[in-house]
Write a structure and sequence with these properties.
By secondary structure, the protein is an alpha/beta fold. The chain has two domains: about 240 residues, P-loop containing nucleotide triphosphate hydrolases (Rossmann fold, 3-Layer(aba) Sandwich), CATH 3.40.50.300; about 240 residues, Rossmann fold. It has 17 helices and 22 strands. A six-stranded mixed β-sheet has the order 6-7-8-3-9-10, sandwiched between helices. Strands 16-19-20-13-21-22 form a six-stranded mixed β-sheet, sandwiched between helices. A hairpin with a 2-residue loop joins β21 and β22. α4 crosses α5.
Length: about 500
């Protein structure tokens, strides 16, 4: 029996100033299939999805839905035509509740006269349970973790009962357990006849859940495979146009316990969040923070960086006690923090890349009383080359870059600041495989220069592959540290599970 084509793209083309983002895209999507789209950052994946969801207007080409040629004028029009999207970057209102966000614009009854809040909250509660979270639907978005916000986005997409659901990097912020929940959701949707378009850099997920996979490069569809006919290596080679090996590059030397201490914290406490955190970070070391989402990892490093207030504890840098009261103080003491939320906390989205890169070290580009824009551009161009940032120029606004290239700009900012202690919170979130390897090499390069790194990652293989030691954090407490041969996924999970059993 022939498969039913529910969505057909013919000759889709899109141009932005200085770059052709999409070039003659032709692709069919079948009913009840999971069709993955893979490609490097800047390949055009998100642009294509934004056209399908009505965010971008169609410049050239045709979209056919269930055999009928359609014009998608805006996101509401896309929803009315049975297509919803889960964006890589959240599209939520922080000041509203979970329920209000899920049903935004749909809260009134048919007459528009009143809102049945009990029914609305109950529906939201059921949707959140469907994505694996039993959480009060009246909770405000601003009070949620990044992973919880991601699940709200998924619940919102499910609420429309769309026949085509686009998921753009849906697992980027999720732990292994949460990814399993997501995979179950995707499998359930497929069983119900829903078409899922799945965009991900996590190829192990792509291989597990896809029926077909299409590879994009430089705005074009390179090829489409049945998943049974392709390997991970084949996908990577088609994505980057070259062979990518040694995912976690090894360093020739590793600091021992007798290495000089760059950072030491003693008994750090933030009431209700984390308690009695103590550890040392050695010079030339990568110290990994492992733990479930909500364990307190991000909160600990934010407090060290001065972004959140501490209720107790001491911080030492190079053996000298310091008082860090703000990020400005932290930067002056040689600390850097690459945050997990690059858009709201890492970038000035509507400023050019040159100003984003220089903003943490302005004194380096000041001449006399004024900032030298020429020097800013020169510095930025250096990092564009070094990090292979895909952009027409250093004066492109950060908002116009892909998520992965935005992350590279944040990394460039802290590299230019020349900090000695670099905290990386989910540094490869939304980054393609080729760029990940580049970032791993850059991390090793910084270590070779005598710098020290704290790394938080929800991708456990990445954390284990790059870290010299791994701290396990659970419930806001330091539960153990793994060294050398102890650093395994099994030992990390056993440490967490043992602590959970004790707590129960």
């Amino acid at each position: 029996m022939d498969k039913k084509v529910v969505l057909s793209l013919r000759g889709i083309t899109k141009t932005f100033p200085g770059v052709k983002a999409l070039d003659d895209i032709n692709l069919d999507f079948y009913a009840g299939e999971v069709h993955s789209i893979c490609g490097e950052n800047g390949a055009g994946k998100s642009t294509l999805m934004k056209i399908l969801s009505g965010v971008y207007s169609l410049e050239e080409g045709e979209i056919w839905i269930n055999g009928q040629k359609e014009t998608i004028r805006n996101p509401l029009d896309a929803l009315n035509k049975g297509q919803s999207i889960i964006f890589q970057e959240f599209n939520l209102v922080d000041a509203l509740s979970i329920a209000e966000n899920i049903f935004l614009g749909r809260v009134a009854n048919s007459s528009g006269a009143w809102v049945d809040w009990n029914s609305l909250n109950q529906q939201a509660k059921e949707l959140m349970r469907r994505v694996g979270y039993d959480i009060d639907p009246t909770t405000l978005i601003k009070d949620l973790s990044v992973a919880e916000k991601q699940m709200v986005e998924i619940a919102k997409a499910l609420s429309y009962h769309s026949k085509v659901i686009i998921m753009d990097e849906p697992s980027a912020t999720l732990t292994a357990n949460e990814v399993e929940k997501l995979i179950k959701i995707v499998n359930d949707l497929r069983a119900d006849g829903t078409t899922v378009i799945y965009i991900s850099h996590k190829l192990e997920e792509v291989m597990r859940i896809s029926d077909r996979v299409s590879i994009m490069r430089d705005g074009r569809i390179i090829t489409t495979y049945d998943i049974a006919d392709v390997t991970t290596d084949m996908i990577v080679e088609q994505m980057v146009g070259r062979s990518v090996s040694q995912s976690y590059p090894k360093r020739p030397t590793h600091p021992g316990a007798d290495a000089p201490v760059a950072l030491e914290v003693r008994n750090l406490t933030r009431n209700g969040v984390f308690h009695d955190i103590s550890f040392q970070l050695h010079k030339g070391e990568i110290l990994g923070f492992a733990g479930l989402v909500g364990s307190g990892r991000t909160e600990i490093v934010r407090a060290i960086f001065g972004a959140d207030k501490l209720d107790g504890g001491e911080i030492f840098i190079d053996g000298e006690q310091v008082k860090i009261t703000s990020p400005k103080t932290a930067i002056a003491k040689g600390l850097a923090l690459l945050t997990e939320d690059r858009k709201s906390q890492g970038l000035h989205l509507h400023l050019p890349l040159s100003q984003n890169v220089s903003c943490a070290n302005l004194k380096a580009v000041v001449k006399g009383l004024f900032i030298s824009r020429k020097d800013e551009k020169s510095v930025c161009n250096e990092y564009i080359r070094k990090l292979a940032i895909k952009t027409p120029s250093s004066e492109q606004k950060a908002v116009n870059l892909s998520g992965g290239n935005q992350q590279k700009v944040v990394l460039a900012k802290w590299m230019f600041a020349n900090s000695d202690i670099i905290i990386l919170d989910e540094p490869t979130r939304g980054i393609d495989i080729g760029a990940k390897v580049e970032i791993y090499h850059l991390m090793n390069e910084m270590i070779a220069q005598g710098k020290s790194i704290i790394m938080i990652s929800s991708e456990l293989p990445e954390l284990l592959g790059m870290s010299d030691r791994v701290m396990v954090i659970y419930g806001g407490e330091h539960k153990g540290t793994l060294v050398g041969d102890e650093i395994t996924a099994e030992n990390v999970m056993q440490t967490i599970l043992k602590k959970q059993e004790v707590a129960q």
